[in-house]
Design a protein that fits this description.
There is one protein chain. The protein is an alpha/beta fold. The protein has a six-stranded mixed sheet with strand order 5-4-9-23-24-25, covered by helices on one side. The radius of gyration is 24 Å and the shape is globular.
C-alpha cells in the first residue's frame, strides 16, 4: 500500500509518495478523512500525529499528537483528542511512531561566532580516528587556494580517536606540505604545520603572550601552549583570513541548520573572545531581519578590551536595551539578555586541564574591575553570567558579588534581587559554594567540557575529584536552576547528544568513566535540564521546554527512541524532523522534502562542501 502526504508543511510542496518503511511517515488518506472539520478560527495550522511524545508536562507526560497554531502549541493529546482541530487548511504529518521531544536548548555555546567561521572550518567533531582526520586535512588542502588556511578549530577530543592521542605538527606537514594548517585543541594547545609557521613569520625569537609558550619542533612546525592563558590561541585564530560579511550570513544559515539536525531549536549565546558586539554579529543580524533564523538566540555580551571592560558595558547599556526581540516574524528569536560570560578578563580562570589551576587573586586590579562592572550591571538591571571553572575562583568572585550587593542595598537599590545571573561551568564547585550562589539567587549553566578533556582532569586531579566534576546531584539537591549545554564550538562539539550521553552515563566521548554514579542523571532529568533548565537563563522557562498549550512550537522528531536505546547509541541520535516556531527547519530521510534548500555555501573550497559538519558513523 502506498500512502501520500496531501497537505505538506511547506506550501506548494510536491506530493511525496512513500512506500515500505517510508509509509510510516505519512497519514493515510483514510485516516485523514476521519477528522471532523474545525472552523478556520480554531483550526490548527499543523498537526503532527502518530508520535511517541515526551511532553515534560507533568499533567500530560505522554501523548500521540500535537496541534500547532500561530507558532504556538495549541493542543497535545491522543490522535482522537486532536482530530477536531483539523480544518481545510490544516497541514498534517505523521511521526510514524517516532519519539518526539521538546526542542533542545543549549545553555552555553557561541553560535553567532561559530556561524561566522563555519564555512571556512574543517570539523573533526565525531571523527573516529586521527588517521581519518589527517586524511581530511590532506583532501581539504588540495582544494584550498593560496593565501587560505586549513583550520580545525575545536569540537574534538584525542580520546575519541582510535589512536587516543593528539596530532603532531609533523603529521600536519605531511598531510599538507604547502598549505598552512592550524589545529586547535580546546583552549589548551594549538598545532601549526611548517607552512603555517612560515606564513605567520614565527621563529625562536618570537615572543609569546604572558602565560603562553611556543614550542618549535624539528620538522619546522610548532605547538602553541596555553599555560593557562589562552591569548596565544585566541590570537592565532584572529590572524586567520576572515570571510566576507555576505559569506558569513550564508555560513551562519548553514550552521544553524546543522544545529537543527540534532534537534536544537534554542541556544544561549555566551559571546566569546575575539567576537565584538555589534560588529561581528552581522550574519545573525541579517537572518533575524529577514525572518530566516532557525534557532532562537538569547545573547550575552562579552567585553574585548582588557582593563576597559567597564567602559564597554557603559556604552552597551546606554545604547542597547535587554529583553527586546530583534527578529522579524519569530517570537523571542533574537534577544539581548545581558552581560557575560566574561565580565572582566582579569577574573577569568580558564579551563586548561593540561596546566595548573590559575589563581585570579594574583592579577592586578581584578577585584576593583569586577566590582565596578558588577555594580554597573546591577544598577542597569542587566542579567549577568560569569565564567568560572574552579571552586576557589567561584568563592573569590562571590566575595565581590556579595560586596556589590551589600553596597547597592546600602544605597537604596535592589542589588542582585530580581536579577537572573549564573556561573558558567563550575566543574569543581562545592556544596557550601552552591549555598552562597543560592542565597544571591543564581543558577548553574554546566557544559560538556569534561566529556572532551576529562581524561586530562583525571590525570591531574585524581579519581575522587573527577567523580564529582561537575557535581550535578549537589546542584539539583541544592535547588539551583541547572542548564546543560556544550560550550561549543571551540571547546566541545555542538552535538547535544554527546552532552546527554555524558550527563547520563558519566563517560567522555572517548568512553572513559568520569562521573561517579551519584551524579549520573536519568534520561528524563538530562532532557529536562537541556530544555526547561536551560530556558531559565533566558527567562523563558514558561515559554519553552515543554510540549503543552501556549508553549513555543519547537520540537524534534527523533531517529531513535531516546528513553529506550542502549547507552552507546545515544551519541548516534539525530532529528529526522525539527520544527521551530511551528515551521520545518530540518528534515532528513522521509522528511527531506519538507525543508527549503539553503543558498549555496561559499567559498567554493569550503570544507563543508566536502565533509559536511558533524561526522556521524
Amino acid at each position: 500500500m502506498t500512502n501520500v502526504i496531501t497537505s505538506t508543511i511547506l506550501s506548494r510542496r510536491r506530493l511525496l509518495a512513500l512506500s515500505g518503511a517510508g509509509a510510516a511517515s505519512a497519514l493515510t488518506l483514510g485516516a485523514c478523512s476521519k477528522f471532523s472539520r474545525a472552523g478556520s478560527d480554531v483550526a490548527a495550522d499543523f498537526i503532527l500525529a502518530d508520535a511517541n511524545v515526551i511532553t515534560q508536562n507533568a499533567s500530560n507526560p505522554r501523548a500521540q499528537s500535537i496541534a500547532v497554531k500561530n507558532g504556538l502549541i495549541q493542543a497535545v493529546g491522543t490522535n482522537n483528542d486532536i482530530r477536531n482541530l483539523r480544518g481545510p487548511g490544516t497541514q498534517i504529518l505523521s511521526a510514524g511512531g517516532r519519539t518526539v521531544i521538546p526542542g533542545l536548548n543549549d545553555s552555553h555555546m557561541h553560535p553567532t561566532r561559530a556561524g561566522r567561521f563555519y564555512a571556512a572550518e574543517l570539523r573533526w567533531d565525531g571523527v573516529r580516528s586521527l588517521k581519518r582526520g589527517l586524511q581530511m586535512i590532506r583532501e581539504a588542502a588540495a582544494k584550498t587556494p593560496e593565501g587560505e588556511w586549513v583550520r580545525v578549530v575545536g569540537g574534538w577530543s584525542p580520546f575519541q580517536f582510535e589512536e587516543r592521542r593528539l596530532p603532531t605538527p609533523a603529521e600536519l606537514t605531511t598531510a599538507a606540505p604547502d598549505t598552512p594548517v592550524y589545529v586547535l585543541y580546546l583552549y589548551s594547545q594549538g598545532y601549526l604545520n611548517a607552512a603555517a609557521v612560515k606564513a605567520r613569520g614565527l621563529g625562536p625569537s618570537t615572543r609569546a603572550p604572558f602565560g603562553t609558550r611556543y614550542e618549535f619542533t624539528e620538522d619546522g612546525g610548532c605547538i602553541l601552549h596555553a599555560e593557562p592563558n589562552p591569548d596565544l590561541l585566541y590570537g592565532s585564530i584572529g590572524a586567520l583570513p576572515p570571510l566576507s560579511i555576505g559569506t558569513q550570513t550564508v555560513s551562519t544559515k548553514h550552521f544553524y541548520r546543522e544545529l537543527n539536525r540534532f534537534g536544537l531549536t534554542s541556544v544561549i549565546d555566551a559571546g566569546g573572545g575575539g567576537h565584538r558586539f555589534p560588529d561581528d554579529y552581522g550574519g545573525s543580524d541579517a537572518l533575524a531581519q529577514t525572518g530566516d533564523l532557525s534557532v532562537r538566540i538569547s545573547k550575552y555580551l562579552f567585553p574585548q578590551n582588557k582593563g576597559q571592560e567597564l567602559e564597554e558595558f557603559q556604552t552597551w547599556t546606554r545604547e542597547w536595551e535587554t529583553g527586546v526581540n530583534r527578529a522579524s516574524h519569530i517570537m523571542n528569536a533574537y534577544v539581548l539578555m545581558g552581560g557575560g560570560e566574561f565580565l572582566v578578563w582579569a577574573a577569568g580562570d580558564y579551563e586548561n586541564f593540561l596546566a595548573d589551576r590559575p589563581d585570579i587573586t594574583t592579577r592586578d586590579n581584578w577585584r576593583p574591575q569586577l566590582l565596578g562592572v558588577t555594580r554597573h550591571l546591577l544598577q542597569e538591571r542587566w542579567p549577568l553570567r560569569i565564567h568560572a571553572t574552579y571552586d576557589q575562583s567561584m568563592n573569590h568572585i562571590l566575595d565581590v558579588f556579595e560586596e556589590a550587593h551589600a553596597l547597592e542595598v546600602a544605597e537604596g537599590r535592589l542589588g542582585f534581587a530580581g536579577i537572573r545571573w549564573a556561573f558558567d561551568h563550575g566543574e569543581t564547585v562545592q556544596p557550601a559554594t552552591l549555598q552562597r550562589i543560592k542565597a544571591l539567587g543564581g543558577g548553574m549553566a554546566m557544559q560538556a567540557r569534561m566529556a572532551y578533556a576529562g581524561e586530562y582532569f583525571l590525570d591531574r586531579y585524581g579519581v575522587d575529584a573527577t567523580r564529582n566534576a561537575p557535581p550535578f546531584r549537589d546542584v539539583i539537591e541544592a535547588g539551583l536552576p541547572l542548564g546543560l549545554g556544550s560550550d561549543s564550538t571551540r571547546v566541545a562539539s555542538y552535538n547535544p547528544w554527546n552532552t546527554l550521553y555524558w550527563a547520563t552515563t558519566g563517560r567522555s566521548v572517548g568512553r572513559t568513566l568520569l562521573h561517579g554514579e551519584r551524579h549520573h542523571m536519568s534520561r528524563e532529568e538530562a532532557l529536562f535540564h537541556h530544555t526547561v533548565g536551560s530556558a531559565w537563563f533566558s527567562q523563558e522557562e514558561s515559554l519553552k521546554g515543554r510540549l503543552a498549550p501556549g508553549q513555543f512550537a519547537d520540537f524534534a522528531v527523533l531517529n531513535a527512541p531516546y528513553l529506550d536505546v542502549p547507552d552507546e547509541d545515544l551519541m548516534s541520535i539525530e532529528s529526522d524532523l525539527t520544527i521551530m516556531d511551528g515551521k520545518v527547519v530540518w528534515g532528513q530521510d522521509d522528511y527531506s522534502g519538507f525543508v527549503e534548500p539553503l543558498p549555496k555555501l561559499q567559498p567554493e573550497w569550503s570544507p563543508v562542501h566536502t565533509f559536511g559538519g558533524y561526522q556521524a558513523g
